[in-house]
């Protein structure tokens, strides 16, 4: 299993004002264009007085800020952040959801409403501006206000999101530039980011798509990318975020990533649950089972990691208490597992789900097949889904 909270390298042109003129941006290939304002003429707000403390900014905004997760067709699990700008609609960075199949949006349990995990559709996006709008079936009332003007240089700002998929976090900083031009590198891919807000609040990987707030709690940008080493970070300006987000919400149309090839009929793990977290949890289950089956064989040539080491990485909580060393884990898991079914997934709290599995297994040195039904407590407190606790429900002959 690969887990990714994207990290980027930046080539910044800090002293260069954006030279481009007004252009047209389409939310989809068949939608009418949205005419953007000339970026150098955007209204700029005067610095706002410090009306809230860091804790107040976080407390007043946290229920509108979401964790986004998904799996692409290669089986890579990734996380990001986003926020409600109106009920039922979330805005995030497009690179967060561009390749994700059926992204899942998770809200905090303190948010109004009975449901806290939602399947989301991409209903508008702008690749050049790196903005995406998601629609989900949500009745909560908490949303952030997007400012009508961009922040002035030296304005105090707060970057809030889920770094590496971890619990929500706030970083403080200041605006150091507006109308900035940068080139973002993501692996072998490079893309320009124009007219951006440059700031010093250090967002971690996984906070992309989260809000950049001022001291009044207004959203003055959408966190896009940055490098912690040199304290250069960029956000899409609020004026552009508002224009694209409101246009997509007014005329939503499903523009989610295209579906993957049908799964192999002999796939090791079959997902029967339609709960939005199930695809992400399945990547952990698959890594765990494939690791046990590989045993002491090397499964990652680059790192030299063995199958047992891969499986052991999927544990947390009481599972690690029971197996405090890799050798203890290996001694209890010398077996071959097959025909794994994720039969149900249910929400528990902000960082955990309950999962039921059924699988066949044969212990090393034996020939008799057994079928076991299990209930696991799965946790994302460490950033990715892990096996935190377990209970055997039933064991019988195959």
Automatic annotation (TrEMBL):
InterPro entries: Chloro_Bact_Ser_Proteases, Peptidase_S1_PA, Peptidase_S1_PA_chymotrypsin, Peptidase_S1C
Record flagged with keyword Hydrolase: yes
Superkingdom of this protein's organism: Bacteria
Stored Pfam families: Trypsin_2
Keyword Protease: yes
Keywords of the record: Hydrolase, Protease, Signal
Signal peptide bounds: 1-24
Region feature Disordered, mapped onto this chain: 36-56, 251-276
Compositional bias per record (Polar residues), positions renumbered to this chain: 38-51
Entry's family note: Belongs to the peptidase S1C family.
Protein name, UniProt field: Trypsin-like peptidase domain-containing protein
Species of provenance: Microlunatus ginsengisoli
């Amino acid at each position: 299993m690969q887990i990714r909270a994207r990290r980027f390298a930046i080539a910044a042109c800090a002293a260069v004002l954006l030279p481009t003129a007004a252009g047209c941006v389409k939310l989809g290939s068949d939608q009418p264009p949205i005419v953007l304002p000339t970026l150098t003429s955007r209204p700029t707000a005067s610095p706002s007085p410090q009306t809230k403390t860091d804790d107040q900014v976080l407390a007043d905004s946290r229920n509108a800020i979401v964790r986004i997760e998904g799996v692409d067709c290669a089986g890579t699990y990734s996380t990001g952040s986003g926020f409600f700008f109106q009920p039922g609609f979330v805005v995030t960075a497009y690179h967060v959801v561009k390749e994700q199949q059926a992204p899942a949006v998770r809200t905090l349990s303190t948010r109004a409403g009975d449901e806290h995990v939602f399947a989301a559709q991409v209903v508008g996006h702008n690749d050049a501006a790196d903005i995406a709008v998601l629609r989900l079936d949500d009745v909560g009332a908490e949303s952030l206000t997007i400012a009508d003007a961009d922040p002035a240089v030296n304005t105090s700002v707060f970057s809030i999101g889920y770094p590496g998929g971890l619990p929500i976090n706030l970083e403080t900083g200041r605006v150091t530039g507006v109308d900035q031009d940068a080139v973002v590198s993501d692996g072998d891919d490079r893309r320009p980011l124009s007219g951006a807000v440059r700031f010093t609040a250090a967002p971690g990987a996984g906070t992309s798509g989260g809000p950049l707030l001022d001291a009044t709690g207004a959203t003055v940008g959408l966190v896009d990318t940055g490098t912690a080493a040199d304290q250069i970070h960029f956000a899409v300006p609020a004026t552009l975020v508002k224009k694209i987000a409101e246009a997509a919400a007014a005329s939503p149309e499903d523009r989610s990533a295209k579906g993957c090839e049908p799964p192999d009929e002999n796939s090791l793990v079959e997902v029967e649950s339609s709960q939005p977290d199930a695809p992400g949890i399945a990547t952990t289950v698959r890594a765990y089972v494939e690791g046990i089956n590989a045993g002491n064989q090397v499964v990652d040539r680059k790192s030299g990691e063995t199958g047992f080491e891969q499986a052991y990485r999927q544990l947390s909580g009481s599972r690690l208490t029971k197996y405090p060393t890799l050798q203890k884990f290996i001694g209890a898991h010398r077996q071959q597992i097959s025909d794994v079914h994720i039969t149900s997934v249910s929400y528990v709290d902000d960082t955990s789900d309950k999962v039921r599995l059924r699988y066949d297994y044969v212990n090393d040195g034996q020939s008799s097949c057994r079928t076991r039904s299990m209930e696991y407590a799965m946790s994302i407190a460490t950033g990715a889904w892990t096996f935190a606790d377990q209970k055997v429900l039933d064991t019988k002959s195959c």
